[in-house]
UniProtKB/TrEMBL annotation:
<keyword id="KW-0066">ATP synthesis</keyword>
<keyword id="KW-0375">Hydrogen ion transport</keyword>
<dbReference type="GO" id="GO:0045259">
    <property type="term" value="C:proton-transporting ATP synthase complex"/>
</dbReference>
<comment type="similarity">
    <text>Belongs to the ATPase epsilon chain family.</text>
</comment>
<comment type="function">
    <text>Produces ATP from ADP in the presence of a proton gradient across the membrane.</text>
</comment>
<dbReference type="Pfam" id="PF00401">
    <property type="entry name" value="ATP-synt_DE"/>
</dbReference>
<keyword id="KW-0472">Membrane</keyword>
<dbReference type="Pfam" id="PF02823">
    <property type="entry name" value="ATP-synt_DE_N"/>
</dbReference>
<dbReference type="GO" id="GO:0005886">
    <property type="term" value="C:plasma membrane"/>
</dbReference>
<keyword id="KW-0175">Coiled coil</keyword>
<comment type="subunit">
    <text>F-type ATPases have 2 components, CF(1) - the catalytic core - and CF(0) - the membrane proton channel. CF(1) has five subunits: alpha(3), beta(3), gamma(1), delta(1), epsilon(1). CF(0) has three main subunits: a, b and c.</text>
</comment>
<keyword id="KW-1003">Cell membrane</keyword>
<feature type="coiled-coil region">
    <location>
        <begin position="90"/>
        <end position="117"/>
    </location>
</feature>
<dbReference type="InterPro" id="IPR036771">
    <property type="entry name" value="ATPsynth_dsu/esu_N"/>
</dbReference>
<dbReference type="InterPro" id="IPR020546">
    <property type="entry name" value="ATP_synth_F1_dsu/esu_N"/>
</dbReference>
<keyword id="KW-0406">Ion transport</keyword>
<dbReference type="GO" id="GO:0046933">
    <property type="term" value="F:proton-transporting ATP synthase activity, rotational mechanism"/>
</dbReference>
Amino acid sequence: MKTMQANVVTPDGSVYNGQVEMVSAKTTEGELGILPGHLPLVTPLDVGAVRLKHDSKIQLIAVSGGFMEVRPDEVNVLAESAELPSDIDVARARAAKERAERRLEQAKKDNIDFKRAEMALKRAINRLDVANK
């Protein structure tokens, strides 16, 4: 099976670096799958899981936005934040989800900071989803 280099980096450093058979990610335009030899592109990422297929196994990484740069032999994910399932503190993520839900309800009533509360909730749910798979 053909492979390509995949790198997931954040401002804090590298989260993943290795050869993969496929990368799929949630972009702002929808789900995108990348195989070796893909045409070059750059696309913004939405909050979601980046899936890296290697040795017929799927590695999930929780990503909170950023960009993905694709070259025929390499994919670079430049993420605002990214976490492997083993690095996610599930109790902390649950607490963040509960806080975000409360803020979202308050934002609906006060009509302020709704988008910020909604994004916090999306990030917390994404982290929990990745940690629980």
